[in-house]
Prior knowledge:
The first copy, chain A, is of the alpha/beta class. Chain A has helices at residues 40-46, 96-99, 140-143, 149-159, 177-187, 201-207, 218-223, 241-245, 269-274, 286-298, 313-321, and strands at residues 2-6, 15-19, 28-38, 63-70, 82-85, 88-90, 110-111, 123-127, 132-133, 167-171, 190-194, 211-213, 228-233, 248-256, 277-280, 305-309, 328-332.
Amino acid sequence: MIKAYAAFKAGSELQPFEYDPGPLRASDVEIKIEHCGICHSDLSMLNNEWGMSTYPLVPGHEIVGSIAAIGENAKHLSLNQKVGLGWHSGYCMTCDTCTTGDHNLCASAEQTIVNRHGGFADKIRAHAASVIPLPNEIDAQSAGPLFCGGITVFNPLIQFNIKPTDNVAVIGIGGLGHIALQFLKAWGCHVTAFTSSPSKKNDALAFGANMVLDPNNTQELNAASGQFDFILSTVNVKLDWNALINTLRPKGRLHFVGATLAPLDLSVFPLILRQRSISGSPVGSPTNIKKMLDFAVRHKITPNIETFHFSKANAAIARLASGQAKYRIILSHD
Amino acid sequence: MIKAYAAFKAGSELQPFEYDPGPLRASDVEIKIEHCGICHSDLSMLNNEWGMSTYPLVPGHEIVGSIAAIGENAKHLSLNQKVGLGWHSGYCMTCDTCTTGDHNLCASAEQTIVNRHGGFADKIRAHAASVIPLPNEIDAQSAGPLFCGGITVFNPLIQFNIKPTDNVAVIGIGGLGHIALQFLKAWGCHVTAFTSSPSKKNDALAFGANMVLDPNNTQELNAASGQFDFILSTVNVKLDWNALINTLRPKGRLHFVGATLAPLDLSVFPLILRQRSISGSPVGSPTNIKKMLDFAVRHKITPNIETFHFSKANAAIARLASGQAKYRIILSHD
């Protein structure tokens, strides 16, 4: 039996919950969980904000642990090896996106906390292709958020060929944004942090921002007109997207990784006149997760964490919901 | 004096109008106009739909003629040479977009019918860099629309690296769309035409479409889910953009060259989950206009035209406004 923490209906507190994972599939491994980050997506799923939650719901998809059992076909991993698991716990491996290396866009990908049980538990099973070895040099306790928040902000730098000479900006300095600032600084870019929280300004500068702007300050946005090659939005609130698009250079891109629910209400003229793009992306492929881990090791990039024991999961969730966490919360078994 | 046809206020008919162009600037040439296409942008400017019209307004920015006078610095053109002129009649030549070959994105570019007089005239002046030699093999009478409508739909194929293996679609089979279908067929793509006019279906197939769909037919859109690498929208009406985005493959792009005035009201989730992009672009650079002309010659691509004498400009405009023109109207002096 796997010992977990589950919500039994939308919005309710987590309670201890056990389930039988059945026989280990040939393609899967079992991970003994040591740490698990909490992501905003866990909150959204707990509250069924996306209409796809099933209960009992075990959250948790920023998992670090060690291999406890190996299916007969999962030959590239070894017992006791340190690994991480993120939003995806399996891919079809045969569709065009999988066979071209874009497993993260696989329409049949298994999602760690959707219609299956996640990482607020002592163990978890997953398809071995989605389980990524953790480099020895990485601190295991703080590494979990790299497997969802981290790869979500790292992947666009690969996908859109961001250059060290680019002038870039990050909207929102939270769980994702504080990692994005570190990656972009190490990438060699000029980095602007957009935050409406004056209290986060010094942190943003410490994480690598060259300057800090308020996305709700019209005067600051006007002064930044036509400046950015790339803006990465990590927030899920509605902002004045047209004013932000106006801060893009010709051929600039406003890219969404934050799951903002309100429609984008974009004017088409500012896109046409300056050949600007709008886009979005989810997490990343196994290969890009490995690239990210290697980059994080070389540049000593780590999420800033607060830690709670797994038995205090409800308090940890309340802390995340308060918006006060700096900047990612980790649950640990010890 | 230059003899032209001008509207003296928004929405009024054209009347004969003369103006003195002054001394020829060193960087400019004078073109003796033979033919001029009529573009929807001429209508929008005549009616001041974009709030930037000044009167008297001489429309016309799909111009073909021959060089009648050459400024002392315009050494790459020669007297009597056949040339074309489109939406841009000059560039600053020194900004970052100009010096990297993206003259069409120059923020100070001169626009042929904005705050100056266009091609419904016997002559016109323009900065020599914006005046493009017409290949001998091209039919002069029907070539004008290539310099605005043509380059507007050709340029994105260059900018976004469209591949012959791509599955592409064109929304709107009008002045721009009927040229886009021809370019994309010659590009080697599988081409779908989106039109809500059943009467245009056979024409769309003749221009190169492999199939025709109705953008307002939910069933047809659902059946095309996840199919297209690239959709080019040439219309200025509001469609169900989210339903159209759903027909894009992972990493697909919905690209706007039609100046739709209504905001795009896009959901961000379909962009994030499949890494899709939305973008826009205006005309093209001088180099890409030359590439287009060469491509049009090699593939025998020509706009389908109806012709009017310049003295019938008001009738020609009424014909365009009726939506019945098939597919581009040309004014000619003879």
